[in-house]
Write a structure and sequence with these properties.
Layout (H helix, E strand, L loop, with lengths): L4 E4 L8 E4 L5 E4 L1 E2 L15 H9 L3 E2 L2 E8 L8 E2 L1 H4 L10 H5 L4 E7 L1 H4 L8 H19 L1 H4 L5 E5 L14 E2 L4 E2 L1 E2 L2 E2 L3 E7 L16 E8 L2 E9 L5 H10 L2 H4 L1 E5 L1 H4 L15 H7 L2 E9 L14 H11 L4 E3 L12 E6 L2 E4 L6 H12 L12 H9 L8
Parallel strand pairs: 3-6, 4-7, 6-8, 8-9, 9-10, 16-17, 17-18, 18-19
Antiparallel strand pairs: 1-2, 1-20, 2-3, 5-6, 11-14, 12-13, 14-15, 15-16, 20-21
């Protein structure tokens, strides 16, 4: 790959984001793998895991599909669904043929924030419990055997402080808010940087679990030009988090070209009460830190006037007021009966550019043969159903009825 690409997968209200670097690094931010979508004939839903295994995760380690790092912004189910079943969890030396056959994904380095778990242990879903168990295993291993802990499938990065006894001895693996790093999975890279904004060490007023989210800025280079494209991800972080981030951060670490609307385009980025509260000034100040041609993505179902919050039509309208209708995208599509498809953006010399799906003649013939033979699900390719419908209405695909 000769591009840096950010892909937002369509998973209704939820997050599942893949970062692919031209240096070969691949990271995931949250996941939402729905069993009901896999191997389904319903082409109106996108099969994320199929797309990852067949088109994205080409590298294999110990015969398993491999991803360099996985970041969990916070342990709500719509941000970690399927983690327990789709990733390999446990000691990599114990990988079995059953794991290989199941194509479990091996995570090189797990990015874990104790702060986001500390107040919610009695509310955790099965996948969040599995994530924490794997993080605990990797932390214990670092203390017991640092050499093995520095191998693919065992590495751990702890994001943010927490007053926990089991972090003693792990200081070298802790990255606190305000830090800038370029090391991922044991390798240092010189073409991008990650700035950690949160979670903060101390709780913010209101005691809301969405106030302990991981928030990060990714800054990408273009050839020898530094920081030409800035991505900011913040999970479900609500307005109080952004208020503190704006207060503590400098202009450089607040700049953005691509921003994911927090909490699936909820009004909580702006204020508590969408009916009565005006947007908080700090939220608008943050949006004003954008560069030209800035883009906002809502990882949510289609946004309509009838929806509950999230997604919130009022929030979308406020975003659009800042950046314009053409620069706002939703993974759920732009019409109520539209077919969700991944939204992918590539780094350019002036920010991010949306990637339009195009296929050449050879690929078109291959797709035609696969469709005819029943071996291809359109929803796994990254192409959307409207393309398939257009092909059908045209009377065939390259002469193939």
């Amino acid at each position: 790959m000769d591009k840096n690409i950010i892909t937002f997968y369509p998973v209704d209200n939820g997050d599942c984001i893949l970062l692919e670097m031209k240096n070969g690094l691949k990271m995931m931010w949250d996941c939402k793998f729905r069993n009901s979508v896999e191997n389904s004939d319903d082409e109106s839903k996108f099969d994320v895991i199929n797309n990852l295994l067949n088109y994205k995760l080409e590298k294999k380690v110990s015969k398993l599909p491999f991803i360099d790092a996985f970041v969990l912004s916070h342990p709500d189910q719509d941000h970690c669904l399927g983690f327990n079943n789709k990733f390999y969890l446990g000691d990599p030396i114990k990988i079995s043929q059953k794991d290989i056959d199941a194509q479990k994904i091996l995570i090189g380095e797990l990015w874990y924030s104790p702060r986001v778990f500390i107040e919610h242990t009695d509310e955790l879903c099965v996948d969040a419990i599995a994530f924490k168990k794997e993080a605990d295993r990797r932390m214990r291993l670092f203390k017991e055997d640092p050499v093995r802990a520095n191998q693919d499938g065992n590495r751990i990065r702890i994001v943010g402080w927490a007053d926990l006894d089991n972090l003693v001895g792990l200081e070298k693996r802790i990255t606190i808010p305000g830090s800038e790093i370029n090391e991922v999975n044991g390798h240092n890279y010189n073409d991008f940087r990650i700035f950690i904004h949160s979670p903060f060490r101390n709780a913010i007023e209101n005691n809301d679990r969405n106030e302990t989210n991981i928030v990060m800025q990714f800054r990408f280079d273009w050839n020898s030009i530094k920081d030409v494209a800035n991505l900011i991800l913040g999970g479900d972080a609500e307005w109080r988090v952004w208020e503190k981030i704006v207060k503590l951060s400098d202009v450089k670490t607040l700049k953005w070209d691509l921003f994911e609307a927090p909490h699936h385009c909820s009004w909580s980025f702006f204020a508590d009460d969408r009916e009565n509260d005006k947007p908080n000034k700090s939220s608008l100040d943050f949006l004003a830190k954008r560069n030209s041609k800035a883009i906002i993505v809502s990882s949510s179902k289609y946004i309509s006037h009838k929806d509950s919050n999230p997604p919130c039509k009022k929030a979308k309208n406020r975003y659009v007021k800042e950046i314009g209708e053409n620069n706002f995208y939703c993974t759920g599509g732009d019409c109520i009966d539209g077919t969700p498809s991944p939204l992918a953006f590539e780094v350019t010399n002036s920010g991010f550019k949306k990637i339009e799906h195009k296929i050449d003649d050879s690929q078109a013939h291959d797709y035609a043969d696969a469709f005819i033979n029943g071996k291809l699900k359109l929803g796994a390719t990254g192409l959307n159903l409207s393309l398939g419908n257009s092909i059908a209405k045209s009377g065939g695909f390259y002469g193939k009825e």
